[in-house]
Amino acid sequence: MKEYLNIGVSVSICIFCYDEDQKKVLVVDKENDPFKGGKVLPHQMLQPKQSLEEVCSEVLEKNIGNNDVYVEQLNAFGKVYRHPSGRIIDISFYGLVNLEKDKIKLNKENNARFEKIDKSLDLVFDHDDIIDFASKRIKRRMKYRPLGKNLLPSQFTMNELEGLYSCFLGKQFDKRNFRRRILEMDFLKKVTKVQRNTRGRKAILYEFDPKKYKNYSKAGF
Length: 221
Hints:
The chain is of the alpha+beta class. The protein is 31% helix and 29% strand. It has helices at 2-5, 52-64, 127-144, 158-169, 175-185, 210-219; strands at 8-19, 22-29, 39-40, 43-45, 70-77, 88-97, 113-116, 156-157, 188-196, 202-208. Strands 1, 2, 3, 4, 5, 6 and 7 form a seven-stranded mixed β-sheet that branches. It is elongated and about 65 Å long. The termini are far apart.
């Protein structure tokens, strides 16, 4: 049995936000070897008496100061040589946050920050693979279930909603068709007040209808 038990388990979390019209992910600087100073997803080793959810909560609290955000278990990553120190299986979660609404407080000690997802991100271990897997999961989810509530402010414009979907799905929409399709699903409510855009024009504000949003989240579009 000792041979079979000679395996470690880590828990990592891939936290996304929508900031400055871009999809960003939370990264930190690794605090110790191997790859000390390298860029990684927030993660922590699982202790024998801890649950995966407990570790995930600790990682959230440590790095963003809030463990009450939207998270889901993602997948297990277990390539034989994924970790140079030995056989370590990673159980990954992904989460979605709004930087203001969720009152995010980034951990300055390990330089926690949100970075744009592109080829220059270049994380150590297999954490780039985890981000890619999580991004594909979100794409599938957004096609059938709403996820904007976790990424947008409480009140938003139709352009902001379109920008979110365009960014996370990696495609451009025809504005009229997007607006018509979204309004047909009837999970938005108009807000009585309006805001001015950069050209000084009035822009209608919307918010999600909690009951209908919840129904779509369970049953899909």
